[in-house]
Amino acid sequence: MAAGTRDLTSLPQSGSYTTRDIETGGFKTFAKIFSASDIIAVKGAAIEANEVVQLVDVAAGDVVKNVMLFVITQGTNTSGNTGFEVGTGDDTDGFIVTTASVEDLTAGSAIGTPGAFVYSQLGTGPYTLTLDCRGKLFTAADTIDLKITTSDLLTGKFVLVYDKLTLGHII
């Protein structure tokens, strides 16, 4: 089966909202644990380069920030280096841009550097201003996606951690 989009949004995740969380405007932290075997089970075949994995459903009006991806169990592949990006349908590396091969990262390692949804630059030269935007407001329903950018992935277990605030009742 060729590389394509795989949906893991139905796998359980931690975290939930209460009325009090929304009333105070507080962000809630969530964690989504997934493994290479989860992706292989949904796909029904080996994971290839350019595979996109939909990890989390996000509703219109949600704000997502502080997206982090950590290694629980070191990944392996058959050849080359496996890279990850984390983003959305409109920007596959909006949250995390890969900087290291998954195989080189041991348990507890963080994957990648911040993407476009995290930092924004205004101006050029001596007048450049870097803003810490701290997330993305979703104006339409979407998913937080993991893109396997290079090589294949045979094993490994990972956790995606992120903060979310639901503003759909306001917008």
Structural write-up:
With 171 residues, the chain is mostly beta strands. The protein has one domain (5-166). Helix content is 8%, strand content 47%. It is built from two helices and twelve strands, in the order E-H-E-H-E-E-E-E-E-E-E-E-E-E. A six-stranded mixed β-sheet has the order 1-3-11-5-6-7. It has a four-stranded antiparallel β-sheet with strand order 2-12-4-10. Strands 8-9 form a two-stranded antiparallel ribbon. Strand 5 (83-88) and strand 6 form a beta hairpin. The chain is globular and about 50 Å long. Residues 16-24, 119-123 and 128-132 have low confidence and may be disordered.
* Strand residue percentage: over 45%
Structural class: mainly beta
Detail the poorly predicted runs: 16-24, 119-123, 128-132
* Count of helix runs: 2
Q: What is the average of the pLDDT values?
A: 75
User: What portion of residues is helical?
Assistant: under 10%
Number of strands: 12
Globally, the shape reads globular
**Count of structural domains:** 1
Main attributes?
171 residues; mainly beta; six-stranded mixed beta sheet; 8% helix; globular
Could you write a compact summary of the structure shown?
The protein has helices at residues 19-23, 36-43; strands at residues 5-7, 28-35, 51-58, 62-76, 83-88, 91-97, 113-114, 119-122, 129-132, 136-137, 142-150, 155-166. By secondary structure, the chain is mainly beta.
Topology:
Blueprint: E1 5-7, H1 19-23, E2 28-35, H2 36-43, E3 51-58, E4 62-76, E5 83-88, E6 91-97, E7 113-114, E8 119-122, E9 129-132, E10 136-137, E11 142-150, E12 155-166
